[in-house]
Design goal:
By secondary structure, this protein is of the alpha+beta class. The protein contains 4 helices and 10 strands, in the order H-E-E-E-H-E-E-E-E-H-E-E-H-E. It is 24% helix and 32% strand.
Length: 170
């Protein structure tokens, strides 16, 4: 687990963390949802991070976020504004939102997440580079208890008995 002072990294360390999160998400899509192929989306600020294709032809666009500070704060920080304009969860073109925190992968439909965020009165904070972003802070325990969130402990080995089918059949 990184130390708090190590979390303010450079763009290069942020990119490395992002790739680590995407690798975990790819494992989830392949092992748990039986994705036939998963592609990483290239570019600077792409509309989503991963594109998954399933045997039945269904396609899934996935946004992946990794939250290292959650281990100490107990909150998931979800960006929705940057430089006074909408960003993050609001601007993402993803169908699924994956958040990785505290050794767990949380997978959810982005529209359900937006509805949840809009119906509750969560605390907001400024942060990111130069405090130019605004984040909604959602308690980790609260988010994992929601019915629309699938929780996967990615540190455990997946077997046929522990591999239920979820979102790709919707």
């Amino acid at each position: 687990m990184p130390k708090m002072e190590d979390l303010k990294g450079t763009m290069e360390t942020d990119l490395k963390r992002g790739h680590k999160g995407e690798a975990i998400a790819i494992r989830y899509l392949e092992e748990r949802l039986s994705a036939h192929q998963v592609f990483q989306v290239d570019g600077y600020f792409p509309p989503y991070d991963l594109f998954a294709v399933f045997q039945n032809g269904k396609e899934l666009r996935v946004e992946v976020k990794i939250d290292y500070k959650c281990a100490t704060t107990g909150n998931i920080a979800i960006e929705y504004r940057h430089n006074s304009g909408f960003s993050g969860v609001i601007r993402s073109k993803a169908d699924m939102y994956i958040i990785i925190a505290k050794g767990k992968l949380l997978a959810m439909d982005k529209e359900y997440l937006l509805a949840f965020l809009g119906c509750e009165d969560f605390r907001e904070v400024d942060g990111g580079d130069g405090d130019k972003s605004t984040f909604i802070l959602v308690p980790f325990d609260r988010l994992v208890s929601e019915e629309f969130v699938t929780v996967w402990d990615y540190t455990k080995k997946v077997t046929a008995e522990t591999s239920p089918v979820y979102l790709h059949e919707l």
